[in-house]
Amino acid sequence: MKTLITYFSFSGNNELLTNDIQKRLHCETFQIVESKKRKGFTILLDVLFSRTPGIQRDGKDLKQYDHIIFIAPIWAGKIATPLKSFLLLEKENIRGYSFITACSGSKAQKDKIQNELTRLAGKSPAMVTELWINDLLPAHKKNKIKYVTPYRLQPKDFAVFADKIEKHLEAISKSIVPTLINVKEQ
Ligand SMILES: Cc1cc2nc3c(=O)[nH]c(=O)nc-3n(C[C@H](O)[C@H](O)[C@H](O)COP(=O)(O)O)c2cc1C
Asked: Ligand 1 within 6 A of 85 CB?
């Protein structure tokens, strides 16, 4: 299966996650780059006003990939707005996809993310996986914005996330089978 990782990262955590998965799959990666350099305070403005920021285009043909793994942060319970912009522009070209995020972590948000992705891409993801920074922190720092939001992942943290990442990759490798059968039947 031909896989592409398409990612956005503002402060580096999801870029590190991209690098970890790239090393496992040896696949191509594509970075979503915004047209204007983002300042931190605009994150909440984007979410508040449902904005879709401008992103740079490089003409990559997504149709050649069986599966795209999207990687991006969660902002205020939603997928980071640059990924939202990308999905709206490219949804017709996406054959199969999944989403994985390194985020703070909150019990109620996974279904919302799944629904948002389905709405934006026009089809549901094969798998959604959240890697919680909360799971890396000692009890007294969990769920406290002053510790969780500024946390920057380090390579050693991926030992904690390894099982979830492997499960994600296993699920997407299975998700491609029906597509191959359909192709054969045509
Ligand atoms: C303004 C803001 C809002 C956030 N809201 C959420 C949230 O609702 N849920 C969550 O799990 N993480 C939330 N986060 C945490 C980020 O998803 C997390 O820090 C992520 O790892 C940052 O990724 P990056 O370093 O690749 O940009 C928020 C972060 C910021 C800055």
From this structure: no
Taking only the tens of pLDDT, the chain with its 186 residues reads 899 999 999 999 999 999 999 999 999 999 999 999 999 999 999 999 999 999 998 768 999 999 999 999 999 999 999 999 999 999 999 999 999 999 999 998 999 999 999 999 999 999 999 999 999 999 999 999 999 999 999 999 999 999 999 999 999 998 875 444 444 444
Nearest by Cα to 158 from 26, 24, 11: 24
Write down all domains in the chain, each with its CATH number in brackets. Answer: 3-185 (3.40.50.360)
Say how many Å lie between the CA of residue 102 and the centre of ligand 1.
Answer: 8
Edge-first strand order for the sheet with 67-71 is: 28-31, 3-7, 67-71, 97-103, 128-132
Whether the model clears a pTM of 0.85, i.e. scores above it, the answer is: yes
Tell which one of 75, 153, 158 to mutate to probe ligand 1, the residue whose CB is within 8 A of the most ligand atoms. Answer: 75
